[in-house]
Amino acid sequence: MSGPAQDIARQIRAGERSAMAVLDATLARVRERDPRYNCFTALTETRARQEAAAIDARRARGEPLPPLAGVPYAVKNLFDIADEITLAGGRINASNPAARRDARLVQRMREAGAVLVGALNMDEHAYGFTTENSHYGACRNPHDISRIAGGSSGGSAAAVAGGLVPLTLGSDTNGSIRVPASLCGVFGLKPTFGRLSRAGSFPFVGSLDHLGPFAASASDLAAAYDALQGEDADDVACAPRAADPVLPTLADGARGLRVAVLGGYFSEWAGPQARRAVEIAARALDASAVVELQGAAQARAAAFVITAAEGGALHRRRLVTHYDYYEPLSRDRLVAGSLVPAAWAQQAQRIRHRVYREALALFE
Question: pLDDT digits over 18-48, tens only?
Fold first, then answer.
């Protein structure tokens, strides 16, 4: 079953619609609805028209079209877009020079035929869960504009939920794709660390940052994910590596599956609906048992320490020289993070490694 993005690409390949017509409809929809949602911080209309025209020209010449031909999309404004300023949600970045080239994932979306229509709202420097940005305004949940969209990739989730574009890109350090995807009722993916290149994106916590897509359907999410994958020497986490092991699938007749859940904080606060969902998933997969990652609570605490320490270190110099440019909530967390003792950060990394080994043992 395909989703709206794949339907658009299929229609363009079949000549039922032109990429330019799809773009015109998208821009009209954004201009009509986004004043209520505040997802976009910039439109890249000139570029989008060039990309759409290129797709239409390729079809007119009878050339085969790439998988996402003519599909409109937008990106969280921490992705570099050639000739645009990379804001990362911060006023302090507004005077920076424009990016000279696209982020690697933007480049890959273009190679897949997708058409970039703009940049999206976010929590300042990706340090938040609400996208209530005091510089660029709060992003609202399209299902109920009195509610938050979540964050820090709130604009990315809300743009899909509001039907503005079928695909978006965001980032996730401690939940910044997963939280807004959940609150906005769309699909979001935080891939395995190192699976997608982060080259050309504004960093937050280098040892925890991930980039990933949003979509209104699982099939569209998979199509975007396929287009984004590939090794990249410009991101040390995504550098060439040994081939991944071939794992058995349900189609191969795998048996003895187990469903894993997070323990500690996550188990204690899980509501009955969440517990019921695990039971349903386990039954559907014919899983033999539900197992628990015991170190999840410690991992959560370690992630907070690592986030604070690395984020604070990244911004320390500019906090000294441009303190008032920062949004108060994220600024206070970054200042506190810059004061985290090295011993705490070192211990947090030890806990991280211990829980990593526990997870590997479960997967064995």
Answer: 999 999 999 999 999 999 999 999 999 999 9
Long-range contact pairs involving 263-271 (C-beta distance under 8 Å, separation at least 24): 263/292, 263/293, 263/294, 263/295, 263/296, 263/297, 264/294, 264/295, 264/296, 264/297, 264/298, 264/300, 265/296, 265/297, 265/300, 266/296, 266/297, 266/300, 267/292, 267/296
Q: Which H or E element spans position 317?
A: helix 296-321
190 is catalytic: no
152 is catalytic: yes
DSSP summary character for residue 115: E
> Average pLDDT, stretch 72-92?
98
Catalytic residue among 18, 152, 156, 197: 152
Alpha helices in 124-214 (DSSP H): 154-161, 178-184
Mean pLDDT on 275-295: 88
Catalytic residue among 156, 171, 176, 201: 176
